Here is the input.
Amino acid sequence: MSVYSKYNSLQILYWFACCCVMGFIAVFLKFCGLSNSEIGIVSGGGAVLSIFLSPFISSLVGKLKKISLQQMMMLILGLTLICFMIITFLPVPSLVTMVLYISMYALMLSAVPIMTMIAMNYLEQGIHVDFGTARGMGSTSWAVGALLFGKIIDWFNPSVLTIGYLITCVFIFILLLSMPPLYQSEAEAKSVEDTVKSEENVLSVLKKYKTFAIILVGFTFVFAGSTALGTYLINIIQSIGGNTSLLGIVMFVMAFSEMPIMSLSGRLIQRFNALTLIAIGAFFYTIRNIGLCFAPNLVVFIICAACQGVSYGLMTGVITYYVNQSLERQDRMAGQTLIGIMTSGIGSTLGNVLGGFLIDGLGMSAMYYFVTGCTIFGSCIVFIAKYLSTKS
Here is the structure.
């Protein structure tokens, strides 16, 4: 099997594993006895922890010269597996469940920049991989996992997610061991460490690339709205009379719609301006998020869910290439890490924590208005970035 095929397979397996950990987080944690507010604290806490854990792990790879990117991935997945097994098969208190799941969530998010750098480092070595296609396959894998586990959870219970994660990890470990090892340079590691080590350094990097900084702020707010919808999607489904099987179908539609867009992102950015594509993604984020909140029936709800491909799929794929093309080499790993910090970190925290408290305190409608406000505000910021770029 070629490196190209192996990297595609890695993305497929990794995002299937992510579906086990993150896709049904509300379903699993409710099964463990947690409330919506506690679920928000867990998912938000995991996002906050990832802000610090992700750059630490990225810089650690460069310092520990004998540790490859693939070995670090195995360590992250192994630690996550241990936490998952403890929560599922041992009678632990709710507080311990929350702490362990926060750790799992942060570890899985921290692996995303490493997955990206594996692709970019292979490309720099002249080894052909296609990040957009691979990431699109990963989204399809998440979609299949959502459809599969949506049914299985209805038949059994959410503990089957742990078994699915265990089996997937075994295949990932075998695959990682078969891939040519990659070692991050000290310069790249230092860039990440310096970027996130202090507020001053973060601001200095963002000031260096002003358009990138504005895009990240906008992406953070639309991602906050999207995250709130994703985490509490089971609540929305139940409010319209659905169950876990319908949740799996909706998640399948969302994730499957990402595949063609992400696969084409590398070609799209060669033909069109990256900022134009990102602005298009923000526009469809607005349709997606507001539509999921106020859809009058299930058909419209599914159509809005399918807009995830041209919203999340487009913005995620394009911004990855944008960083690799627009930032200086020593800043690229930092740029990829900052994407995670601003979106999966700050954005997810905002959406998860406030979403959970709003549902428990004021009801679903309060969360819908919160999502709408975040999405419109974030999209406007992205449009401003696009406008300013045309004037510079």
Remarks:
- The mean pLDDT is 85.
- The chain is about 85% helix and 0% strand.
- The longest helix spans residues 329-362.
- The two ends are 46 Å apart (CA to CA).
